[in-house]
Amino acid sequence: MGVTRLQDLIKATQEDPENLDKWFDLGKFSADRFIVGNCEEALTKVAAARPDDPEVLGILAKALNRRRKLAESEKVYLRALEIDPNNIELLTGLAVVYGNQGELEKAVSWFEKIFAKEKGYPWAVLAYSSTLDSLGRNDEQMKVLKEGLKSNPESGLIQILNGREYLRVGNQSLGKELVEKGIKLLDKADCEEKSRSLRILMEFDSDQVIKHGNRFLEKDPDNIEIQLFVTIARSKTDPKTASVDLKKLLEKDPNNPRILGMLSAALLQTGDIAAVMEYKQRLESAAPEDAFNSMVNMVLAQKLPSRHLDSEEARDQYLESARTFLKRAPADPHANMMYLQALVTCNLIDEAKEQAIKIAKEIKLEGLQQKLAIAVILRILGLENEAQALYQKAGESIDSPYGGLLIQLVQHLERDDYAEMVDACSDYIRQQQATPDIYAILGRVQNYTEHKDARMNLQIAAEAGNHDAMILLSNILSKEGEERKANELLQQVLDSKNIQSITRARSLIGLKKFDEASDILTEFLREKPGSQLGWSLLLLIKRREGTDAVKRVARDMVESKIQIKLEGFDEIYQKLETDKIIDKLTNEVVVGAIGGQVKHLLLEQQVMALLTGEIEGEE
Questions:
Q1: N or C end of the chain: which has fewer CB within 10 A?
Q2: Is the residue at 299 inside a domain?
Q3: pLDDT band at residue 566, thresholds of 50, 70 and 90?
């Protein structure tokens, strides 16, 4: 690659450092491409000499917002608006800052002023509709999008935004038509509209982001924002390579909050927690007001509760991060779920019950899967009436045979009614084209009920690469004396990419490599002590070593779950009660009662994967 436009602009400021027009050109070019370091430096210099130029102030304010220096950005935007009060870009920028500060209602009031003047400004349509979405005001959101499209049908971004909403509500034909039209219009759009459009496409079509992002980069290789989106789109299938690419991108703009945040997210996918902590600290230093800090803190607390929730201060920080995230998107189902998980993790059960009821009654849940997931949580929290009401509500919203199957599986699983699960899956497969994960569930429950077709259905799922089916089928083959085939299946699982720790351990158990499996589970449980399946598998392994070995693991398990010491709880009494629990658990393992629990947990894992869409082992 030859010298780029950015390199030319930097060289121009070096050769003529007193020329403010050169610095302005560098600042504006960088701002349009999310190169926050160059932009802030250049525009700060120009603004000092031209304090009454609204264009200079507006671009500087945008750069400060992107560095998440929100208070400074607000101040500069307000100064620019004193000079040019009707400037739509300045008004939009200020409203965006208020949204980033979590002041959503205040942001809406400014967007209303903007729409009174202009309904088709693409950045305003994007930001206004997103804010309304965060507040759960979906009818108003759709009105904004439709008015924006009517006012400016030549905007690719507005076409794509409308298409996304139609896709969300199930109108696939119109949604795809609008998205395709929007993508074609992007060739005529400026670079900021291109990058904002790719950010929206990222939500539902990563392949399009990669395809068109690379096409845009051929003409605009300096655009860090587009490079970032293309890299993140690839990270969904290869987070390790994406992490390497993001580190290279960060070298170009070392304090860019968006790169630091996305790099932290990619590293979380790889499991490199030490690197996550390094870049998390850099993000907190570069952009302490960035909402992504709260997100990373929450995910770390979920992945590593033993490290991150071992003090009252740490738990308070985790809860505050969850509250901050929720404040920025109070009607967002995901934000509400994250807060609920924080409450449960910190053992605030009464507050968790209130939050779960609030989600069930007040939050617009997206699709059947979310409704079922909340219904399961309500039941776990002992809120049987609320759970049943949500199950009924979910049943009323069924719009496909697949949805009906999900409801049946969840409800039958709670009662360990395996025969009914066999019937539900069999009925579905007779009438619909089923995915491998459904065959895997059918094969498992048929195996539990000693059904003659268990092996056949597990074979179908295993041939498609479903890890659960491959492991269970290997168990059946081994019992039937086909040891070589069984071991070959398990080795295929072990050779798969991005295999989960639990899956690796289960495969090693099948290969009778118990020490290796034990080591993997022990390390896994240090980071995820809340995994009931992980503890149960480790207890089963230790049963081979005798009662004392089981008791040691049982003690580790019980003590890991006592994360919060009850105030005023006598330590001696607490120890006596803990010992009773350990003795009871040890006895259950030794006499074999834990086997039924493992069967349930393995099946539960597969059913929950259907609800979340996270099926391991299928390419």
A1: N
A2: yes
A3: very low
